[in-house]
Amino acid sequence: MQLQKNNEKILIVDFGSQVTKLIARRVRDLGAYSEVLTPNQIKSIKNYNEIKGIILSGGPSTVTKKNFQSIPRNIFFKNIPILGVCYGLQLIAKLFGGKIRSSKKKREFGRALIFKKNNSILTKNFFISNNSVWMSHEDAVIKLPKNFRIIASTKNSKLTIIENSKKKIYGVQFHPEVTHTDNGKQIFKNFIFSICKIKKRWNVISQKSELIRYIRETVKRDKVICALSGGVDSSVVALLINKAIKKNLICIMVDTGLMRKDEFKITYKIFKNRYNLNVKLVNASKFFLKKLKNVSNPEKKRKIIGKLFIKIFEKEAKKEKRIKFLAQGTLYPDIIESRSSTGSKTSKIKSHHNVGGLPKKMNLKLIEPLKDFFKDEVRKLGTSLGLVKILSQRHPFPGPGLAIRILGKVTYEKIKILQAADDIYISELIKNNLYNKIWQAYAALLPSKTVGVMGDSRTYEYTCLIRAVVSEDGMTADYFTFPKYFLDNISNKIINNVKGINRVVYDITSKPPGTIELE
Prior knowledge:
Elements: E1 9-13, H1 20-29, E2 34-37, H2 39-43, E3 51-56, E4 82-85, H3 87-95, E5 99-102, E6 108-113, E7 115-116, E8 132-137, E9 139-143, E10 149-153, E11 161-164, E12 169-172, H4 184-195, H5 208-219, E13 223-227, H6 232-245, E14 249-255, H7 263-274, E15 279-283, H8 285-291, H9 298-317, E16 323-327, H10 332-338, E17 365-367, H11 375-384, H12 389-392, H13 412-431, E18 440-454, E19 457-470, E20 478-479, H14 484-497, E21 501-506
Parallel strand pairs: 1-2, 1-3, 3-4, 4-12, 13-14, 13-16, 14-15, 16-17, 19-21
Antiparallel strand pairs: 5-9, 6-8, 7-10, 10-11, 11-12, 18-19, 19-20
């Protein structure tokens, strides 16, 4: 689905980087329309009139091998500005006669200081005192391509930023799209507006009418079942579809028994009373728990839960006439981590129950209106649709629920223990005005028990892990720095009030190298 009819766009060629969609996010944030294509898809483009700029992403390939991913060479001679990022820079250098060397000794991973060598329209207002950029490469350009010049260097990479201003071709070895790069958005701002000359026209709220039109044209007179969990994503999908085809929407809330404490009671009342949605509640908690018995592997948990959801929705669909679609709140990051949405070589991190966890054959067609959006964009869209703050500002919650926050085997006892601990944790965050400063926070239950002492008695109970991260989009994240008094308080409250937990630990792992969820 194209988000917006637009005669100006930036094309992003996805060479398989895990953060390619962040480039699309940065471009949109700045007010320009963008599309992500694979190298094969760009070969089929016949009309370049609407394309005002092209960004070549990073990726796992190397141009030092005989066969490497590329784009048609004639694209470089269409007078369309081009920006190469990481692998994109190396590809530009290779195609224009530069030299690239693969060197494990000179590789750069993580932050690196960048030093200005020459002025460039690409780097206007980019350099600040001690700029730090995010590197992730083993290959390096060691010989400048013909008619290019150096703009900036790092200690281990002399040709960190290069340009051929006459042909409007630029390359950066680092990743300006990630938040770890200081002032990285300025690179895109200069490229989009100063070099590509695009007018600022795109914003997420303007897509509302286009999404409603898309839903109507897709569904027509058929009916839709919406998988409604009460999270931000599914709530926005439900409100969008309700606006598009009100009489033909049936929302199904499946109580898996794996949700947060009292979550279904609260959200069910909101959707029924405030929004007057056609909502049906299905209690399948015993069914899910039975199927998850003795299952420890997280991927298997996701697959089981995904298949069970579909079985329930298909069963409910048979009770109504003309139901042909299943609506889900799938987002860009879900697709990125499960599979590449464009068919590129992006490596799979994990399955999401609403993407990679679905069975290959279903009787229902999927409709996913939000699959091109990031979480913060969905929040804005939700606000414009009148979604209440208790839902629009809610932290992300995984589709498989507490099943992947209980490491190892899932039991009824563990679910109750974790629900109680998580409820205390989240309640204290809200009470201390910390909840809205955090992207995502949750409690998890570790699989092994440890010895503790309570009073004069020995205990042998579970360890509760608490996690809180700050992020813009969920693609990269850092742990939240709590004041000591809060950690002291939360540990004390959980241990004193939740029977079954005698130890609390705080996870200080960033993403990467970790993921936000443990499984």
